[in-house]
Amino acid sequence: MNIEKLRALYHQPLFDxxxxxRAVHLEHWAGEExxxxxxxxxxxxxxxxxxxxxxxxxxxxxxxxxEELLSIERIVDVAKRAxxxxxxxxxxxxxWRGVRDGTDKFERVLDIVREVSRLxxxxxxxxxxxxxxxxxxxxxAGVTAYNHNIDTSPEFYSEIVTTHSFQDRLNTIxxxxxxxxxxxxxxxxxxxxxxxxxxxxxxVLSELNPQPQSVPINCLMPMPGTPLADQQPVDIFELVRLxxxxxxxxxxxxxxxxxxxxxxxxxxQALCFFAGANSIFFGDKLLTAKNPVADVDLxxxxxxxxxxxxxxxxxxxxxx
Length: 320
Description:
Layout: H1 3-10, H2 14-28, E1 33-43, H3 72-84, E2 89-94, H4 104-117, E3 122-126, H5 132-141, E4 145-147, H6 166-179, E5 182-184, E6 187-189, H7 195-206, E7 214-219, H8 236-249, E8 254-257, H9 266-275, E9 279-282, E10 285-286, E11 289-290, H10 294-303, E12 307-308
Parallel strand pairs: 1-2, 1-9, 1-12, 2-3, 3-4, 4-5, 6-7, 7-8, 8-9
Antiparallel strand pairs: 10-11
């Protein structure tokens, strides 16, 4: 969807916009169903990239302790517990610029994926830049989705990251699509970008062929020590408008209300769900950022009459 249409959608009266997005949502999705995903950092800190929002960048002094790649046993144990709490997708993130076929760390990741995929959940990974060979092997090992956010608009991108380009991001996404894996691709708002930058981000996502199957919308969690540490929270109505536009422009994607939910009220989250969000991360941490605990999320979903995606679709028995 081109930027002119996106602007027209975004700037209409809020109730008109969310009425349209709700209609699109109900056309393509069960309106009361919300997928819960669990996210684990399997390798933390020491990243060579200079992403201005990231506490794991080696360029900044953020107090994050560097951890090497976790053991298979520890990762599988966390995945089993997530499955037992109702997660139907298990996501694993590693603070690397990327991985390359033939390296020891890539072989270890493939072994991890094979073990986690046996648990019956969807398996999502985010490992930085990859090419066609890595994408094919990840899919063969059992990865169902690869997360690689474009973060923001092409025009604003260099204000946030200088160690790789926007085109580098698109190249990785193309490799993932060619392999047959699902693409999980969204961005972050609240980094100092304009509303037009946010809409350009949605424009790029909507014009990917095929469109992403999952679109996480993150609100910046300012991390001490990073260049964006003093950024102010995003206005809730700006977030709701963006979710509504994303739902209309990318109707078949799960729109995931991702980082930043600890700064949103229950009422604000309810508006996001009504506008078209139908997936959340749950658990008390997203890589290095705080997240609402699982019991709080379940209480909110119950209060709204929303159902969590049935775990039995993906796993035979709950973990002990």
